[in-house]
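Appendix B. Chain record.
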Amino acid sequence: MTQVKVRRALLSVSDKSGLDALAAALARHGVEIVSTGGTAKALRDSGLDVRDISDLTGFPEMMDGRVKTLHPKVHGGLLAVRDNPEHVAAMAAHEIGAIDLVVVNLYPFAATVARGAERDEIIENIDIGGPSMVRSAAKNHASVAIVTDPADYDRLIAELDGADGATSYDLRRYLAGKAYAATAEYDAMIASWFAFADQGEAFPAQLSVPLRRGQSLRYGENPHQQAALYLPAFSSGRTIADHVQVQGKELSYNNLNDADAALELIAEFRDGPPTVVIVKHANPCGVATGETLVEAYKAAFECDSVSAFGGIIAVNRPLDGPTAEAISEIFTEVVCAPDADDAAKAVFAKKKNLRLILTGDLPDPARDGLTLKTIAGGVLVQSRDNGRVTRADLKVATKRAPTEQELEDCLFAWTVAKHVKSNAIVYAKDGVTAGIGAGQMNRRDSARIAASKAREAAETFGWGSARTVGSAVASDAFFPFADGLLAAVEAGATAVIQPGGSMRDDEVIAAADEAGLAMVFTGMRHFRH
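Structure tokens predicted for this chain:
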């Protein structure tokens, strides 16, 4: 059945946007409109003739609206196969009229949860009749059109106007697919709320992850890969997925991945002094604090000016004009900030390819949540790494305790190391990264690479010595041998922060003592793969 004339439509929506235009189009084509509760009232207020659902079924809406559409005269009218003689006979015998169009959007469950409603109200916002009608209509899309998204009203109206009040099979099939996706997402939201919020399960036996496509991306990590960004139904906000893009080219898969890494790291400093993070290929290549953002940017840039080219920058303060001017001196892919003043926007407006994205705020680094990673044939799920250490958590392992400044540098380096791909080594001095070694197969090489970058920076900017001299060094996991620590000694570090817990801790501590280093253990590691 290709074209189906719409003679009767059932409308029941919580979102009334676009309803007037749709109902007017239906009335224009002589469609009988059946409706429920608030939807019927809204239609009557617009001057349209509406038949109450209770008149159709012969039963009143009851139990506070819980029971109104769960009736054979509704579902029979939706599910009947129009060219099946037995179905047609049953409809005639029980006075069931066909319903050719259903327009439903479901109770606002996610919005109710998001505004912190009490449990009883949340339960009341679990729609029963709506999903039942959606599924019935979608199953019988050969004859019935089901609309669950107001964004599809214009397409439906255009088709009705162009086909004398009829719908095409192609449209009904498209709408049915969207309808099942809508009920699947809705059920997943409810299952997630019950599992995590209501019953406090960390890893439920069945993990339902309601995701909706936010945008299609130009391509994935490489041009031959396709990609899209999906957004969760329950969003905490203040994440890279919730950004507002002010200017620049479309964001790519790699842009978003790198910007996420930058935002997660800058969030660690959201309550600190002006701080700038520069990220390249999901690894920080420079992090610095300063009296001003522009001062912090210049210090972060000098850590690894080579890698900073084409990087991603995140700041923990509203972006200002002087900082934007400094950033504009080299090619930058993305700048991420809580906000930006007019002067900064004017500067970046001259760089048409630079993407400026605003988050409105920074995420809470201590927030709970799950991270998912696909592997062949499965998904690895873990709680997000929200672990943090304070001075009270540190245990001095060497004969010499760190000075106040060394302790500050240790904690700064440790915070950055948490966001560097393992094996990670970070040197820091006076709130500035001096060298970063990322992603090596052994810790010694990471220490040497970081020191080499620091020496290169010293030569580039004409410093008397590398910033690693007199620095603190952080290791994301314990030193399994003393060689990694000795590489840090060679670079000039005077203090070390690491988790501890190696079988050779005594050997590493002895090497630190011999070199006169101060070393503290955190008791926590930060592998990042």
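Further analysis of this model is presented in Appendix C.
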